Amino acid sequence: MAKITLSIIKADIGSIGGHIKPSQRLLQVVENYIKEKRGNLIIDSYIGHTGDDIAILTTHKKGVLNEKIHKLCWNAFITGTDMAKKQGLYGAGQDLLKETFSGNVKGMGPAIAEMEIEERAAEPFLMFVADKTDPGAYNLPLYLAFTDPMYTPGFILSPQIRKGFKFRIMDVSYTQADKVIELNSPEEIYDIAALLRDNERFVVEGIWSRDSGEQAVSVSTTRLHNIAGKYVGKDDPVMLVRTQKDFPATGEILSPYTIGHYVAGFMRGSHSGPLMPVKINSSISFFDGPPVVSCLAFCLKDGKLTEPVDTFDHPYWDYVRNNVSRKAEEIRRQGFSGAAMLPMSELEYTGVMETLKELEKRFIIRKKQS
Ligand code: 13P
Ligand code: 13P
Ligand code: MG
Ligand code: MG
After folding, report:
1. pLDDT band at 370, cuts 50/70/90?
2. Cβ of 131 less than 6 Å from ligand 2
3. Nearest to 237 by CA among 189, 260, 209, 204
4. CA dihedral sign of residues 299, 54, 8, 160
5. What is the predicted pLDDT for the residue at 1?
């Protein structure tokens, strides 16, 4: 059995009423494009949206960063952008930051999470799509699910999981090339934590089982402001996670999302807000947020997908959503002050820099009084 590749390629190419959700027509155009042009290139596909972002999941045998697969999705987004413009959608083509396609979509705007896998007899996996946040949003949930028996009792109960995991972490502030480090849990969990505390700089790119060597996780690492040089919208990261057997169980992977931890990306990508686990195809509302994450579960057989199951569509998560709403309200009460707004390192890509430059001229430096 040849290896199977799972690819998620995701972009915001326009939405209704601000940064809320794409139109049905736009989704249809993207879906039809993939259907019509797929030929024998892909085995299966799924297309959905979370907030204003459209994610295309494909399964194929071409490996990661494959030119044909990436071009298919890029062209689907280009074709969609024409429709978004025709309908007058807001931010048409927002995440398509380069004019010409060259090789793959890395560094062109869309978010990518891909994995080439040896398909197991049963291959359960999860597709995460987040809106109004950045790739560091997954740092804490991944750290907890892949190192902590409080979230993953598999560390106590399963000999395979006990062996731990290898984390590959990227320094996304280094823009000349990919700068990565590999660290092993459990021996190096404090080093892993020392990096992952800084969600805007250090981001989990992938995680591997130390028992089987197989890849468990792949996260998109795109920071749009690094490509555009200014704020053009939030990164809105996607992630693939394989579950069960040599990996944490699906419920263990989901359990940290009960926290609703504060992440970057609320309103104008410039505020902190709690990450709310939502049902698939949810829209966006309060203060252009709150930051949301959706998660679909699939099984795979010979590259064919089952229908998806919406993991956050369960009464338990209604309770969580209420708690997260309270956390959102709480931080919003302090407006622009302190922890509610992101640090200057994030805001330096926005218009506030002009204001600060002007004000700098009006500062006076007092003469020392003797
Ligand atoms: P506009 O300045 O285009 O209204 O966008 C604000 C915003 O929503 C940030 O992307
Ligand atoms: P998106 O990145 O989801 O387009 O949101 C942009 C924004 O600034 C909303 O306030
Ligand atoms: Mg948008
Ligand atoms: Mg978005």
Report:
1. confident
2. yes
3. 204
4. negative
5. 62
Q: Which residue has the tokens 């009464």?
A: 315
In short, whether 234's Cβ falls inside 6 Å of ligand 1 is no
Beta strand residue intervals within 36-118, DSSP E: 44-50, 53-60, 111-117
pLDDT at 158: 97
262 is catalytic: no
**Closest C-alpha residue for ligand 2 atom 7:** 268
pLDDT tens sequence across 83-109: 999 999 999 999 999 989 989 999 999
Strands (DSSP E) along 156-290, which ranges?
165-171, 180-184, 202-209, 215-219, 238-242, 262-265, 271-274, 276-277
Active-site entry in 33, 46, 138, 231: 231
- Report residue 147 as tokens: 């190192």
Q: How far is the CA of 234 from the centre of ligand 2 (A)?
A: 5
SS3 content of the chain, % helix, strand, coil (to 5): 30, 25, 40
233 CB near ligand 1 (under 6 Å): yes
Instruction: State pLDDT tens for residues 11-35.
Output: 999 999 999 999 999 999 999 999 9
Distance 72 CA to ligand 1 centre (A): 29
Helix 139-147 vs helix 189-196: crossing angle, to nearest 10: 170
What distance in angstroms lies between residue 152's CA and the mean position of ligand 3's atoms? 35
Name which residue sits closest to atom 9 of ligand 2, judged by CA.
268
**Residues in CB range of 147: below 8 A, 6 or more apart:** 155, 164, 165, 185, 186, 189, 192
* pLDDT for the residue 97: 96
Quick check: is 12 catalytic? yes
Q: Using pLDDT thresholds of 50, 70 and 90, give the confidence band for residue 326.
A: very high
Q: What is the pLDDT of residue 52?
A: 97
Cβ(268) to ligand 2 under 6 A? yes
Q: Which residue's CA is the nearest one to ligand 1's atom 6? A: 268
Alpha carbons 69 and 358: distance in angstroms, whole number: 47
306-332: string of b/e by CB count within 10 Å (b at 16+)?
A: eebbbbbbeeebeebbeebeebbeebb
CA distance linking residue 62 with residue 298, whole number of Å: 20
